[in-house]
Amino acid sequence: MEKKNIDWENLGFGYIQTDKRYVSNYKDGKWDEGALTDDANITMNECAGVLQYAQTVFEGMKAYTTEDGRIVTFRPDLNAARMVDSAKRLEMPVFPEDRFVDAVVQTVKANAAYVPPYGSGATLYIRPYMFGINPVIGVKPADEYQFRVFTTPVGPYFKGGAKPITICVSDFDRAAPHGTGHIKAGLNYAMSLHAIVTAHANGFDENMYLDSATRTKVEETGGANFIFVTKDNKIVTPHSNTILPSITRRSIMYVAEHYLGLEVEERDVYFDEVKDFAECGLCGTAAVISPVGKVVDHGKEICFPSGMEKMGPVTQKLYDTLTGIQMGHIEAPEGWLKVIR
Ligand SMILES: *Cc1c(COP(=O)(O)O)cnc(C)c1O
């Protein structure tokens, strides 16, 4: 198979249309068999549920080429399971988990020419999603849905090394207690846009959201979970049922404990203790871990000892181990890599 003529190293994070996408429709209480299609456009009624009341959930994952030339994805079964949780919370029918993984495999296979080569740092981003498609005007769940998977090649997240970022404590809330913070739904992103545009306008890279009930505990950013490293090398991550359960973060906690022999804790993290940590990072599929150098709380700065030049040493070890597993130079735990071809 010949790769597309793309300047992989200089790709950004934008949409580039690839050849095929997967579509399955839900109607009369069941999903059809699903198929790949060339058509990147969706035609729907002006009153479609997704357009009026934002009934839509999504997932994000990557396919990449390992050192020995295989195309793999990372723990797609967890994305499938998470989409089930998201769908249930928004009163949508679940797309069966085995079919989710199969749809991802089919879509990546059909776009194999767009999977960036090993060593380029680029990856094929995979976006499964589902939405209510029939007309809905009274507020209620749709009766008909569409599940789709498309892919788009994206460049290396860090060009020229991972530089630590500066984040600010947000005046906005991301998630309400007993709300939808724990599911991957478009609505959580729509309402975060004003907060991120405001943060950028004030010169910050990201928002740190605190728990909306008490504004005392660290939750997450708009699209990534926190990990902290204590001065005695313990890995700490906030526990909260309004945080989106990041697959990257769960994998990092496993790697810390089972590959690096570090102590790990998932617990309440009070904002007051952030100043005592040695390192801080943001975990998500896009960057794996982006190092945080500084947190600014209304003019008061917390500067982590790891500084603004490079990742802290423990964060770096976690990053190297997890990316080593993903790229196939370190043996993966059973079932973590799904080989596509
Ligand atoms: C997707 C997402 C993450 C990261 O999850 P991964 O499974 O690691 O990609 C973290 N926080 C939010 C709010 C998200 O939507």
UniProtKB/TrEMBL annotation:
Pathway in which this enzyme or protein is active: Amino-acid biosynthesis; L-valine biosynthesis; L-valine from pyruvate: step 4/4; Amino-acid biosynthesis; L-leucine biosynthesis; L-leucine from 3-methyl-2-oxobutanoate: step 4/4; Amino-acid biosynthesis; L-isoleucine biosynthesis; L-isoleucine from 2-oxobutanoate: step 4/4
Biological process terms in GO annotation: branched-chain amino acid metabolic process
Catalytic activity: L-isoleucine + 2-oxoglutarate = (S)-3-methyl-2-oxopentanoate + L-glutamate; L-leucine + 2-oxoglutarate = 4-methyl-2-oxopentanoate + L-glutamate; L-valine + 2-oxoglutarate = 3-methyl-2-oxobutanoate + L-glutamate
Keywords recorded for this protein, A-Z: Aminotransferase, Pyridoxal phosphate, Transferase
One Pfam family recorded for the sequence: Aminotran_4
Record keyword Secreted present: no
TM stretches of this protein: none
Protein family membership: Belongs to the class-IV pyridoxal-phosphate-dependent aminotransferase family.
InterPro entries found in the cross-reference section: Aminotrans_IV, Aminotransferase-like, B_amino_transII, BCAT-like_C, BCAT-like_N, BCAT_family
N6-(pyridoxal phosphate)lysine modified-residue sites: 184
E.C. code: 2.6.1.42
Organism the protein comes from: Candidatus Mediterraneibacter tabaqchaliae
MF (Gene Ontology): branched-chain-amino-acid transaminase activity
The name this protein goes by in its record: branched-chain-amino-acid transaminase
Cofactor: pyridoxal 5'-phosphate
